[in-house]
Amino acid sequence: MNQSKCRVCREPAIIDLPRHNAHFCGEHLLQLCRRQVERAITDHDMLSPADRVLVAVSGGKDSLAVWDILLELGYRADGLYVGLGIGEYSDASHDHAVAFASDRGLTLHTVDLRDEYGYDVPTAAKVTKRVPCSACGMSKRHLFDRAAREGGYDVVVTGHNLDDEAAVLFGNTLRWDIEYLARQYPVLPARDGFPKKVKPLMRLTEREMAAWCIVRGIEYQVDECPIAVGNKHLGYKEALNAIERRSPGAKASFYLEFVAKMAPILAERGLAGHEHLGHCEECGAPTTGDTCAFCRLRARVVGHDPVPVELVLHGAARKAYLAGRDDVAPTGGSR
Amino acid sequence: MIVRLRQPTREIEVDGVHTVNQLLDRLELNRESFLVIRNGTLVPGDGRLADDDVIEIRPVVSGG
Question: Is B48 on the interface with A (CB under 8 A)?
């Protein structure tokens, strides 16, 4: 039997949120999440009711939750899933995205890197010797921008949450990377062919987003991307969660106070670095050079035989991947 | 109790803990990074656990 009560209704609680110094039942957890998203949208002028919204959908908790919340709030939102070719992980992620959309009668566009552009993320990483997450992120951004332009969408929504943004801020701050710090804002306005991009989950943690999905009965991809395991971004999150455990609310203060107090100072000083943009000779996308980064990457990788994901895993990622090959193996130990 | 862990998926048996927080402490898991689920329902930190429970400890951190 649960000991704690919901702060709002005094019914049995299902979750404790130390940063709010409170417990919540399912209904009032959902209310809290909806209100935080509404506040983010209002405070930063993210969306208007007439906007046609394109949600970048990965099949994970954050993108499915933000799509769900925006629909609940009455926005017109379609989804776009990009198939990255990361083995079984991509297959399962796609299945979750498709099931979410079809259960609710929603429009989900799908772009498959291998089928439509002749390469996938593991192959791009192997051929270019780039960090896989870098090729992945760049490819996704390009395809979301393109789909928004061609589909007539007003704004692209991503599922970046408070933990994601705090971790990026932490990394940028460790390097005092002023240009990246100046660009880190939950809204990127449309310019020169790039669509407007917004992050409505900026005020919600990933623990709250996972809880949203569980309470709402949303099945999502729980497993981590095999390539991301052990990456620097996860290390920053681990460090921030260690601080949060001792000082509840620390992550929210770190990021939200940066947005409120520091971002305006950086913007005022014009430190974000807006280069002049032309159009890519290959695909027409906005770019600073003759050819955009996506088309340059594609030109290098197309024609190479597909590389299995396990060949681009190293260190902790490889160890975790091989351990996961034995499904539900009793180990008798803790993580 | 039977405890199901993810990343990678595996099951372990844990005895002698009475609440969610005790379980997470026993396994040295940060409460900020996990949710605990019993029969499809979330259980808060001070929620009581029984020896015949089947529990899922779900990580919430993603690196993408």
Answer: yes
